[in-house]
């Protein structure tokens, strides 16, 4: 036999999509709980890029194989395809938890680009024509954990795709036999998707996408005719059932309606104002300053200038000896004495507030009429 028209089918191809589904399931199960800011509500997306078809066997039925055998031709060959165009457009809904559901329209086109199994096809008129496919898919997408500014996502889809071999023609090695396939067939289709989304900060809700897709359909059934190139008489007719696997790489845009603007970067927090406290103690029933008290007040005045305090609070206290009214007045005299010393040391008077608390806030709780040195005090707070 001088020529071949069909390649033996490699059954391992059928399991590759199942392997992809298994990988997707494992990836989804392993996705961490921390998530990106997910799409919520209605969105529209589209993409375009390269369509890549593998070399495919013709898959002739018994009628075509028998007719070719009678004419002395074999039945093994593959058809190759050049890289082509792939495009998708989809409408979807984000559930706000990482899940998205969408309906997609898809289109792909690849010109034929050589063959094998029939030596000399290209030298004898070559092979021409193209494969186009179009259809509708329903997809379930999962947005994964955000990595920097990028959100990876994966998805699976199922639907219906029509495969069309438009004007596919090839001439045998000896130039005597011509094959023609000009038919279309719709079949169940499925796909696996993996991509990356890059949010565009200048347009809330808009993201640039880059993705890979593996799309496959059940084998289409296409009418094929083999004829004598000189007379046009039919040599064999039947159906071809080529494998239908497509890989594509696309760039696109996705726009989520009603997306909130990206949160503005908050301004850096102001440095906390340092607060320092000083305590000046007094002798019993006295409001004058001891030498140690003057040293503490001088330190407070120095700190006030160093940290540029805007407010100095001076609060006077007394112990529980004497009447409440007397201790109230005594605590005020003590506070005024300390304030006067601060002013003498250069602290602006307008920045000082004086409070007299009497015996109401003791450092040490005591019974009435108890002399307690730690309760006879003035507290200085720098703010």
Automatic annotation (TrEMBL):
**Keyword Transmembrane belongs to the record:** yes
Instruction: Indicate whether Repeat appears among the record's keywords.
Output: no
Q: What is its main location?
A: membrane
OmpA-like domain: which residues?
269-383
> According to its UniProt record, what is one Pfam family this protein matches?
OmpA
Highest taxon of source: Bacteria
InterPro entries assigned = Bact_OuterMem_StrucFunc, Beta-barrel_OMP, OMP/PagP_B-barrel, OMP_bac, OmpA-like, OmpA-like_sf
Q: Which compartment or compartments is the protein found in?
A: Cell outer membrane
UniProt membrane topology term: Multi-pass membrane protein
Q: Which GO terms describe its cellular component?
A: cell outer membrane; pore complex
Write the record's keywords in alphabetical order, separated by commas.
Cell outer membrane, Ion transport, Membrane, Porin, Signal, Transmembrane, Transmembrane beta strand, Transport
What's an example GO BP annotation here? Answer: monoatomic ion transport
From the Swiss-Prot or TrEMBL record, give the protein name.
Membrane protein
Q: Which organism is it from?
A: Neoroseomonas lacus
Q: Entry's CDD domains?
A: OmpA_C-like (cd07185)
Query: Which GO terms of the molecular function aspect are on file?
Result: porin activity
């Amino acid at each position: 036999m001088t020529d071949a028209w069909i390649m033996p089918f490699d059954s391992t191809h059928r399991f590759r999509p199942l392997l992809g589904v298994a990988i997707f399931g494992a990836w989804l199960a392993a996705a961490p709980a921390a998530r990106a800011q997910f799409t919520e509500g209605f969105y529209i997306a589209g993409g375009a890029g390269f369509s890549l078809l593998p070399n495919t066997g013709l898959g002739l039925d018994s009628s075509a194989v028998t007719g070719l055998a009678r004419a002395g031709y074999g039945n093994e060959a593959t058809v190759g395809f050049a890289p082509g165009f792939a495009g998708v457009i989809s409408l979807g809904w984000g559930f706000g938890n990482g899940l998205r559901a969408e309906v997609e329209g898809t289109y792909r086109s690849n010109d034929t680009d050589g063959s094998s199994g029939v030596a000399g096809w290209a030298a004898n008129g070559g092979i021409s024509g193209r494969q186009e496919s179009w259809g509708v898919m329903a997809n379930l997408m999962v947005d994964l954990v955000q990595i920097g500014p990028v959100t990876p996502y994966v998805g699976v889809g199922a639907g219906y795709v029509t495969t069309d071999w438009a004007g596919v023609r090839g001439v045998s090695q000896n130039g005597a036999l011509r094959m023609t396939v000009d038919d279309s067939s719709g079949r169940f289709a499925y796909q696996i998707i993996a991509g990356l989304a890059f949010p565009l900060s200048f347009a809330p809700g808009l993201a640039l996408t880059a993705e890979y897709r593996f799309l496959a359909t059940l084998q289409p059934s296409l009418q094929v005719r083999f004829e004598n190139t000189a007379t046009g008489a039919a040599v064999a007719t039947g159906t071809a059932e080529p494998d239908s696997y497509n890989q594509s790489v696309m760039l696109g845009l996705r726009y989520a309606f009603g997306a909130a603007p990206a949160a503005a970067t908050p301004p850096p927090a102001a440095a906390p104002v340092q607060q320092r406290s000083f305590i000046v103690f007094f002798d019993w029933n006295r409001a004058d300053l001891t030498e140690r008290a003057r040293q503490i007040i001088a330190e407070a005045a120095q700190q006030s200038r160093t940290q540029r305090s805007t407010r100095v609070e001076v609060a006077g206290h007394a112990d529980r000896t004497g009447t409440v009214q007397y201790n109230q007045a005594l605590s005020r005299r003590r506070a005024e004495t300390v304030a006067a010393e601060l002013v003498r040391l250069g602290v602006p008077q307008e920045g000082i507030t004086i409070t007299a608390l009497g015996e109401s806030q003791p450092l040490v709780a005591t019974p009435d009429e108890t002399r307690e040195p730690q309760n006879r005090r003035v507290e200085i707070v720098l703010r």
